[in-house]
Amino acid sequence: MKEISTKLLVIGGGPGGYVAAIRAGQLGVPTVLAEGASLGGTCLNIGCIPSKALIHAAHDFEQARLQAAGNSPMGIRVSEPTLDLAETVRWKDGIVKRLTSGVGALLRKAGVQVLAGWATVEDGKTAVVQLEGEAVRVRCEHLLIATGSEPVALPSMPFGGAIWSSTDALSPTELPRRLVVVGAGYIGLELSFAYRKLGTEVTVVEAAPDILPRYDEALTKPVLDSLKKAGVVLHLGCSVAGWDAKNGVHVRNANADEFALPADKVLVAVGRRPRATGFGIDSLQLTMNGRAIAIDAHCATSMRGVWAIGDVTGEPVLAHRAMAQGECVAEQIAGKARRFEPMAIPAVCFTDPEVVITGLTAQEASAAGIETVEASFPFAANGRAMTLGAEGGFVRVLARKSDHVIIGWHAVGRSVSELSAAFGQSIEMGARLEDVAGTIHAHPTLGEAVQEAAMRALGHSLHI
Ligand code: FAD
Ligand code: NAD
């Protein structure tokens, strides 16, 4: 078998793995990256990017439909729009292609050797990569596991046919008339909005009593109202007991009553599981954290020279966390002193309206014994939100009572995902309420709500 030696072998070319490889290459670390499927991983191929493309296309289509129905308060009138779904999917695929080939180009530029094949770990310093027609044994000083995660299936409804994973839902060949979505978390709700806007009848079944169980009620209420307004039917506090093609999804409510929800397709979005077994990795007997590989503040595993980043290390399952960890590991291998100890990893749910949490929630602060002040500023009092026809939602700031250092931002509203940069920066830079309140924010922008929330926490909001 052909053998190569390198300093760093990265297994997995998703946001975690490809960023680690690029950064290592930039720093002169000889690096090999093995990717069995497609560069860009879940995020670029079947996750973040295609879902946001579909969500945006669905939004535009819905706007056109509302305008055609004479429901545009701005006076825009168009004739009945139609959707060429195949064209929409091609457009989405084109974006994916541009980004994934861009990743290939960046890896080449950084001098990374990419092996297109599945890797099997032999020991902490060796893996075999199965390329087309031949296998290559790679010996390395450092092994980085960045194998990501995969969707969890329900035993009573394995994926296939009418039972969709998120991957199937992102490449539909036709729109289902009736879609039942199991799970009202990130994927379930983002795609419920998208399909509803495209014209599908959507019903959501969620085991917890609330949607987006990790967010507080003030943040989820506008999303819940919007789902209801859009005509999405919700069955909260209900579990799924099975499926048959004739009756649809069998659902059990809190009183153990069973009923059936007819469906042409069922999207199961009940979480993702780390891809931490099944490619020789078990033989390393790494310390685990549940199903995830346990890591320390350096992203080091329990075995010297073996590192792990991204979804394979568990929650939060977010691309930007994986990327930041990848950069951190590469720099350590290149000899820099680094730790992965962020104060804030923004979590954004791209529903309509969007929801963002950066830093601590009030509940987390209270559990940590931190006395806080908090204040919200509503978009109803923000000029830019009015011009966008998006007056729902608010920005909320959470700061330490003792010194006004900001420890959390929470927001719900149109395009609040774009405010997450300001949120993260202020927390990481140790900004106080006075710093944000005293910064001139451009007018008219949604960002003024950020400044106003800080002012309000200090007791002197100007526009409310
Ligand atoms: P992955 O992206 O999963 O990449 C792992 C790679 O490793 C894969 O390409 C896989 O083929 C490869 N691999 C696995 N085993 C082997 C092996 N043995 N040999 C070779 N290669 C191997 N996150 C956000 O931050 N924002 C979003 O908006 C967002 N939207 C999402 C929407 C959907 C529908 C889904 C499913 C996920 C979404 N996520 C989002 C989550 C995000 O995709 C992940 O957190 C991110 O991709 C994790 O990166 P990673 O590098 O850890 O793993
Ligand atoms: P999730 O954890 O966000 O939501 C899963 C939901 O399914 C939960 O509300 C849970 O209570 C519910 N559930 C679990 N078992 C159930 C059952 N048997 N019946 C009914 N409901 C059940 O998981 P997800 O939506 O699959 O997404 C996976 C991960 O991908 C997320 O944790 C997130 O980190 C990541 N993601 C992020 C984004 C983003 O950043 N915008 C978008 C999509 C996905």
Helix segment tally: 13
> Can you say what the CATH homologous superfamily of the largest domain is?
FAD/NAD(P)-binding domain
The average pLDDT is: 97
Helix content: 25-40%
* Known CATH architecture of the largest domain: 3-Layer(bba) Sandwich
Q: Report the strand count.
A: 24
What binds here, in terms of ligands, is: flavin-adenine dinucleotide, nicotinamide-adenine-dinucleotide
| Gross geometry | globular
Note down, in words, how this protein is organized.
The active site is at 443 (proton acceptor). Residues 7-326 form the FAD/NAD(P)-binding domain. Keywords: Disulfide bond, FAD, Flavoprotein, NAD, Nucleotide-binding, Oxidoreductase, Redox-active center. The protein is an alpha/beta fold and 464 residues long. It folds into 3 domains: 2-53 and 86-150 and 273-333, FAD/NAD(P)-binding domain; 163-270, FAD/NAD(P)-binding domain, CATH 3.50.50; 347-457, FAD/NAD-linked reductase, C-terminal dimerisation domain (Enolase-like, domain 1, 2-Layer Sandwich). 31% of the residues lie in helices and 27% in strands. The protein has helices at residues 15-26, 41-46, 48-68, 85-109, 166-169, 186-198, 217-230, 319-333, 362-367, 383-387, 420-428, 433-437, 448-457; strands spanning 2-11, 31-35, 113-116, 118-123, 126-131, 134-145, 149-151, 163-164, 178-182, 201-206, 233-236, 239-244, 248-252, 258-261, 265-268, 272-274, 288-289, 292-293, 306-308, 347-349, 354-359, 372-378, 394-400, 406-413. Strands 1, 2, 3, 4, 5, 6 and 19 form a 7-stranded mixed β-sheet that branches. Strand 9 (178-182), helix 6 (186-198) and strand 10 form a beta-alpha-beta unit. Helix 1 (15-26) runs parallel beside helix 4 (85-109), helix 3 runs antiparallel to helix 4 (85-109) and helix 3 packs parallel to helix 6. The longest helix has 25 residues, at 85-109. It is globular. Nicotinamide-adenine-dinucleotide (NAD) binds at residues 154, 182-188, 190, 205-208, 213, 239-240, 269-272, 316-318, 348-350.
